[in-house]
Amino acid sequence: ALGERLQRDHDAVPFDVVLCSDLLRCRQTCHLATKGWGHEPKIARTDPLLRERAVGVYEGLAHDAPRKPRPPHVPPRKHRVEGGEAWEDVNRRARKLLARLGSTFVSTKGGASERLRVLCVTHGGFIMEAMNAATGADGVSVPFCSNGAWNTSVWKVELTRNDKGKLCCRVVGANDASHLDSSGAAAKLDLRDEAV
């Protein structure tokens, strides 16, 4: 279903770039979702910045497997297990990716005709942190997004520059899984435009 959805999107306006997490399950999804495209993207590669949050010593365990509790003095977003990442680390990766996409693919002048379409195939935790980065979430004035990305959902972020040349992110589609069900399921999230 995702492949058909992306095929329709690609046929309407081809993707210029395809980036994919280098983890196996994303590479498999990307392969299945993009096979059969008549127009090959200009760039197609894996990118470790798109990886899911590393959980270190807990990699490969079931979600309900026993784990050492988070120390009470460590905030949840800063908690890092041995060999793993904190959510703040994933957020830094998301910001780095958005900034790199902006510096590489978003012109400092010109209009929509110069915009490139980039498809990123990634994981739910990374999507959450990319949305936090795109909306400027700080947990105080802008709340953090929850990790609620549906499997194979489509999220759309538009990168532009303001009149001063600063990179801006605008979330234009969130958690759209309408390709999975004829009922047209799509989350109604309130994600504001914010500069990165």
> pLDDT below 50 for ≥5 consecutive residues: which ranges?
184-196
What oligomeric arrangement do these chains adopt?
single chain
Instruction: Please indicate the percent range of residues in DSSP E strands (runs of 2 or more).
Output: 15-25%
Overall number of strands: 6
Helical fraction equals 25-40%
Helical segment count:
4
| Structural class category | alpha/beta
- What is the makeup of the main sheet? 3 strands, parallel
Helices and strands, in N-to-C order? HEHEHEHEEE
- End-to-end separation: 33 Å
Rg from alpha-carbon coordinates:
17 Å
Mean pLDDT: 85
Strand order of the largest sheet: 2-1-3
The coarse overall form would be: globular
Write the layout of secondary structure elements.
Blueprint: H1 2-12, E1 17-20, H2 24-34, E2 43-46, H3 87-105, E3 118-121, H4 124-135, E4 154-161, E5 167-176, E6 194-195
Parallel strand pairs: 1-2, 1-3
Antiparallel strand pairs: 4-5, 5-6
